[in-house]
């Protein structure tokens, strides 16, 4: 949602599987093309690193998730310290069931706040902007995120 700066400033290395890159390569005229092009442009500089699709996809993910989500979960399963970043509800549920730590966009904002990258007021503004720009989150999740801000 246009906040790659938060990943650059505190997430450590961000690994992006080839299947995710392929999903981001949208055709002209797609409503999210500008956002996807910005992400693709950022993938060639730290902290982002493109990954070949080498990890085996979890059998539970076949048929229920897109290629990008399946590849991202597979990569997260390879090393115990990896965190999956996704806002896809089905991918989140499966990853959690498989023991993967998961954060969404709002979680990244909260983590950035706790790391001192965003003040509480700036984090509240970012959350408001993300919701205004179309980020879908239940009111319960939004309230919990706002409560976690310091």
Walk me through this protein's architecture.
The protein has helices spanning 4-10, 18-24, 33-42, 67-78, 89-97, 105-114, 120-132, 139-148, and strands at 14-17, 48-51, 83-85, 101-103. The strands form 2 sheets. A two-stranded parallel sheet has the order 1-2. A two-stranded parallel sheet has the order 3-4. Strand 3, helix 5 (89-97) and strand 4 form a beta-alpha-beta unit. The chain has 8 helices and 4 strands; from the N terminus they run H-E-H-H-E-H-E-H-E-H-H-H. The protein has 2 domains: 4-103, 5'-nuclease (Rossmann fold); 106-148, no CATH class. The two termini are 23 Å apart. It is globular, with a radius of gyration of 15 Å. Helix 1 crosses helix 6 and helix 2 (18-24) runs antiparallel to helix 4. The chain is mostly helical.
């Amino acid at each position: 949602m246009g906040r790659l700066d938060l990943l650059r400033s505190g997430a450590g290395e961000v690994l992006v599987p080839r299947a995710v890159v392929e999903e981001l390569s949208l055709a002209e005229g797609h409503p999210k093309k500008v956002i996807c092009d910005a992400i693709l442009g950022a993938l060639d500089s730290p902290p982002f690193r493109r990954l070949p699709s080498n990890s085996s996809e979890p059998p539970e993910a076949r048929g229920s998730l897109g290629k990008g989500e399946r590849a991202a979960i597979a990569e997260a399963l390879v090393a115990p310290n990896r965190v999956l970043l996704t806002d896809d509800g089905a991918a989140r549920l499966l990853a959690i069931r498989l023991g993967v730590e998961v954060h969404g966009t709002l979680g990244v904002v909260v983590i950035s706040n706790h790391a001192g990258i965003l003040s509480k007021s700036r984090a509240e503004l970012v959350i408001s902007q993300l919701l205004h720009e179309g980020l879908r989150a239940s009111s319960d999740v939004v309230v919990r995120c706002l409560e976690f801000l310091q």
